[in-house]
Amino acid sequence: MEKTILFVDSNENILKSLEKLVSDTNYTVHLARSGEEALHILKNNRIDLIMADIYLDEMNGYDLLTQTKRKYPKVFRVILSENKEDALILKAIQKNIAKLYIYKPLDNDYLLDILNSIFEFQNKISSPELINIINNLEGLPTLPNLYNHLSKAIHDDENIENIASIIQKDQAVAAQVLHVANSAFYGIKTSSIAQAIMNIGLNNIKNIVLATSVFNINLPTSRMNVFKQLWDHAYLCNQLTNLLYMRIFKKKMPVEYLSAGLLHDIGKIVLISIFGNDYYQILESNDFYAREKKEIGITHQQIGGYFLDWWELPMPVIEGVLYHHDPLNTNIVNKDLLAVVHLADYYALKKKNDGVDLDNEVFAYLGIDKDRVDQYINESDLIGD
After folding, report:
1. Are residue 35 and residue 70 in the same domain, yes or no?
2. What are residue 33's phi and psi, to 5 degrees?
3. What is the pLDDT of residue 245?
4. Does residue 290 sit within a domain?
5. What tens digit of pLDDT does each residue of 93-105 get?
């Protein structure tokens, strides 16, 4: 089916250039110069993707995409901005108003690649084959109540103390939040949930709560060691992702990336919750990647990406789930992040001698050799001998 894009910008010249950019594609394009005009177009047309500048005349892009999310939740929402530190962008990230954030100025080829990648991303997580398998599964996981309560509190702009009190109602989750928050790469040492929130941000707290809640589903005592191994790996992978990103790119990770390592294997938890012992046996085998597809018809990447999209997480984190075993896939938007997550996953699994494949082309893509990455890992003391 032909895809339809709505570009929203107060600058007439920018709209004309965007229209020209996609003139030789199969995309249908609508242009709007204001939020009100955009809402009118959304009401009267089938729109697949809206890309709006954060600062529009009268109604800003944040308010426009907030209404779009509420009225037309299936529309993929993208925000454009010139300033990565803009308070409105940070608020949009916190509330997941947009699935993706793109910063100006834009290269035309880059923007066209992003549009193509977004639609490939949507096809991957909503293919008829995947939907058919999921529709025939029983016992599908739902969002934890704690996560729902937390998301509502953030949406309602409740104060930090109230949000902290929601997390503290579940001592196991609160302990894990502090465990992650106190890791070296968040740069804090605290026993206060409120302090943790202020230091690492609501969006990351929300992702940590999601991960810990899902990892803490009810299990037979005999299988608790499997979950502990998965959690320990996810936690270590997240630390290594943050470490390597900072060392390789010489800057802090963008706030929307900070939980990508923690959530990358969440599909395994989903499959355990659905298939129980049958998936345990697959997971503990040496060829579990091949056995997933062969025996249950779905991989942990596919189902993890599907549920994180259904649960409304940002696109960079979902790409971390979908592509951490295929980090140089041409359809990836956030290639820098995926290359680092892939390395972090490899080094975290290497600790227990797991036979995970390493794509050596990642080193060339990142412009770094393996010896230097080994050095960063060894200096961190995150992985013992």
Report:
1. yes
2. -100, 0
3. 95
4. yes
5. 778 899 898 888 7
Fill in the amino acid letter for 193. Answer: I
Q: Specify the residue for token string 């930090």.
A: 160
Contact 332, 323 (CB under 8 A): yes
Classify residue 166 by its DSSP letter: H
In a domain, 337, yes or no: yes
| Whole-number average pLDDT of the chain | 86
What size, in residues, is the chain? 385
pLDDT tens profile 273-330: 788 778 888 888 878 888 888 888 889 999 999 988 888 888 999 999 999 999 999 9
DSSP 8-state secondary structure symbol assigned to residue 28: E
Per the structure block, which two tokens stand in for 75? 């529309």
Distance CA 235, CA 253 (A): 16
Do residues 88 and 137 both lie within one domain?
Answer: no
DSSP string, 99-144: SEEEESS--HHHHHHHHHHHHHHHHHHS-HHHHHHHHT-SS-----
Parent domain of 49 = 4-125
Q: Is residue 158 part of a domain?
A: no
Distances (CA, A) of 186 to 183, 196, 259, 384, 385: 6, 9, 11, 21, 24
Band of residue 347 on the pLDDT scale cut at 50, 70, 90? very high
pLDDT at 223: 63
Q: How much is the average pLDDT of 139-166?
A: 84
Question: Could you identify the residue written with the tokens 């465990």?
Answer: 179
CA-nearest of 84, 58, 65 to 255 is 84
The domain spanning residue 341 has which CATH number?
Answer: 1.10.3210.10
Does 152 map to a domain? no
Name the nearest CA neighbour of 245 among 110, 117, 366: 366
SS3 25: coil
pLDDT winner (highest mean) among 129-138, 159-168, 337-346:
337-346
Residue among 2, 9, 8, 64 nearest 27 (CA): 2
The CATH number for 114's domain is 3.40.50.2300
